[in-house]
Design goal:
Length: 168
């Protein structure tokens, strides 16, 4: 990312982006690591970018003489993380490692992010088979083949990934 030390700030719940935008507007360098995750929204699986560390982000002064004191009153911010009286800091090396992890994770496809893999137990959550459990035998981008007990027989059923979730 860049040289120097970075400070850690705690944000209000689900206001990481608000805090980041306001820190940038005030002239600070800010970094909010986000990961691509697979979420189920309205019966579809979609990718979303969510904070890697909910309620936390990293910042540093944008210029040498800039104080970090105004950060605590920035919209979306709860305060600077401190250990006693000293603010928590992160060196650029660790921040680069976080950035590298974020970059790798965000390259994954839907199959790589899905927890549904061959051998896992799943529950059907929609359609005529809703509520039934089965064992995943194969996974592709558009279909998941599940081995289920139907009418006393082992039957292979092909379903869309959004119709399944991992069994509890």
């Amino acid at each position: 990312m860049s040289a120097g030390i970075w400070y850690v700030v705690r944000t209000k719940p689900r206001q990481e982006s608000v805090a980041e935008a306001n820190l940038l507007r005030q002239g600070y360098a800010a970094y909010l690591p986000r990961l691509k995750v697979l979420r189920r929204i309205r019966r579809q699986q979609v990718f979303r970018l969510e904070p890697m560390f909910p309620q936390y982000l990293f910042f540093r002064p944008g210029r040498e003489a800039q104080s970090i004191a105004p950060v605590r009153s920035t919209l979306g911010v709860l305060g600077v993380v401190r250990f006693g009286t000293e603010p928590a800091v992160l060196d650029a090396e660790k921040l680069d490692a976080i950035h590298e992890l974020e970059s790798r994770q965000n390259l994954y496809s839907i199959e790589e992010l899905s927890a549904i893999v061959p051998g896992s137990r799943v529950t059907v959550v929609e359609g005529p088979l809703a509520g039934l459990e089965g064992l995943v035998s194969s996974v592709s981008a558009k279909r998941v083949e599940v081995l289920m007990q139907l009418l006393g027989n082992d039957t292979r059923v092909r379903l869309v990934p959004s119709a399944l979730e991992l069994a509890a």
